[in-house]
Amino acid sequence: NTLRLYHTDHPDAKQTKSVLRALYQQHGVMVMMGDFVGKYTIGSGATWEQGTDYLNSTQRKRMMESVQRMVRTYKDEPYLLMWVLGNENYEGVHGIVGGASNAGRYPKAYYQFINELATWIHAEDPNHPVAIGNGDELFLDVLAAEAPAIDLFGANVYRGWHGFGRSFFEEVRRYLDKPVLITEY
Question: Which of 23, 34, 39, 91 has the fewest CB atoms within 10 Å distance of its CB?
Answer without folding.
Answer: 23
